[in-house]
């Protein structure tokens, strides 16, 4: 049975995913979006003037923003955050400094970064819908495979009214996140140690997914054993046989070197991967209005740059993995 059989069960799998998502109970308490007056003011003085110098001014930074993500410095997330840093520091004339931490340096999984934002350790993060769903259950709809027909469809949705409504829900229900925009983490595909060419090859695979009710329901319908492994532990888990495969974008598969132990990529193209570009509400509402506007303007430029880099890197890494002998399986 060829993998084309997968498409015959998608309707059932998607329906199961939607039911799981809508039926799950959220334990998070709803909170109102904090007003500026409700946020405790922090000291504006900062001891670091390096970024101000880089921005062409001797102005000492009044505010410092800590940004963190789990990917490499070559990933489009990092490139997008670098554009954000550049725009913020220039537009604020050095009044804001942005410090970026890559490679999971401040948290090897996105749920850790969400927790650190809650405690004030991190101000800006990139988070998948599954991790957002821990406090905003509606976000998990963006984890649903085959939700978008292609990248253009994804952009229309996330930049349009649905994306705006999701931002509103995330901000109001979490009381923690301010959505600056939506990054894209490529188009996700399956990759496995043994080739997967049909549904029969998926039965009982120990398959790493994100811990999302929607994803659990979907992949379980296809016969795999959903397994939860922290992002920075996937390589070792593949190498040691703890899991038989996973799913991700070409950039993540290549940059994390997963293809060294997983030589087969099945082109399921099941997810145009949405990532929330978030700032702490506490930090955002601490800023004066002119600097809030600076953050908003810089975020628009960062999103544009990140999506452009993401597309280019996906193409680049697909070719690099082909050259390295990775087996690409069309369905």
Would you mind describing this structure in some detail?
This protein has helices spanning 4-8, 10-23, 50-54, 76-91, 110-119, 129-132, 151-158, 161-174, 213-221, 234-239, 250-255, 281-284, 289-323, and strands at 63-68, 96-101, 124-127, 177-192, 206-208, 225-227, 245-248, 264-280, 327-329. It contains 13 helices and 9 strands. The chain has 331 residues and is of the alpha/beta class. It is globular. Helix 2 (10-23) runs antiparallel to helix 9 and helix 4 runs antiparallel to helix 13. The chain starts with a helix and ends with a strand. Strands 1, 2, 3, 4, 7, 8 and 9 form a 7-stranded mixed beta sheet that branches. A two-stranded parallel ribbon has the order 5-6. The model is unreliable at 1-58 (pLDDT under 50).
How is the secondary structure organized here?
Layout: H1 4-8, H2 10-23, H3 50-54, E1 63-68, H4 76-91, E2 96-101, H5 110-119, E3 124-127, H6 129-132, H7 151-158, H8 161-174, E4 177-192, E5 206-208, H9 213-221, E6 225-227, H10 234-239, E7 245-248, H11 250-255, E8 264-280, H12 281-284, H13 289-323, E9 327-329
Parallel strand pairs: 1-2, 1-3, 5-6, 8-9
Antiparallel strand pairs: 3-8, 4-7, 4-8
Helix pairs in contact: 2-9, 4-13
């Amino acid at each position: 049975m060829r993998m084309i059989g997968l498409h015959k069960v998608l309707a059932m799998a998607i329906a199961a995913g939607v039911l799981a998502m809508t039926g799950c109970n959220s334990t998070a308490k709803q909170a109102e979006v904090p007003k500026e007056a409700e946020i405790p003011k922090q000291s504006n003085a900062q001891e670091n003037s390096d970024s101000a110098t880089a921005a062409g001014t001797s102005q000492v930074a009044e505010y410092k923003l800590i940004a963190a993500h789990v990917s490499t410095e070559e990933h489009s997330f990092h490139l997008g955050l670098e554009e954000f840093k550049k725009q913020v520091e220039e537009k604020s004339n050095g009044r804001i400094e942005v410090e970026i931490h890559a490679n999971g340096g401040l948290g090897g999984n996105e749920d850790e970064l969400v927790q650190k934002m809650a405690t004030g350790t991190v101000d800006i993060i990139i988070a998948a819908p599954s991790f957002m769903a821990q406090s905003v259950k509606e976000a998990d709809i963006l984890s649903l495979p085959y939700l978008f027909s292609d990248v253009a469809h994804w952009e229309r949705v996330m930049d349009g009214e649905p994306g705006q409504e999701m931002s509103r829900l995330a901000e109001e229900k979490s009381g923690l996140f301010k959505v600056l925009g939506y990054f894209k983490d490529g188009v996700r595909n399956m990759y496995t140690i043994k080739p997967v060419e049909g549904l029969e090859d998926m039965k009982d695979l120990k398959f790493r997914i994100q811990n999302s009710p929607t994803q659990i329901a979907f992949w379980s319908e296809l016969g795999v054993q959903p397994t939860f492994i922290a992002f920075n532990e996937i390589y070792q888990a593949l190498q040691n046989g703890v899991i038989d495969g996973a799913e991700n974008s070409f950039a993540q598969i290549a940059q994390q070197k997963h293809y060294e132990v997983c030589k087969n990529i099945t082109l399921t193209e099941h997810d145009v991967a949405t990532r929330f570009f978030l700032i702490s509400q506490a930090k955002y509402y601490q800023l004066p209005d002119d600097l809030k506007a600076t953050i908003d303007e810089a975020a628009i430029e960062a999103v544009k740059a990140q999506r452009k880099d993401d597309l280019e890197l996906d193409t680049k890494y697909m070719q690099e993995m082909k050259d390295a002998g990775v087996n690409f399986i069309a369905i």
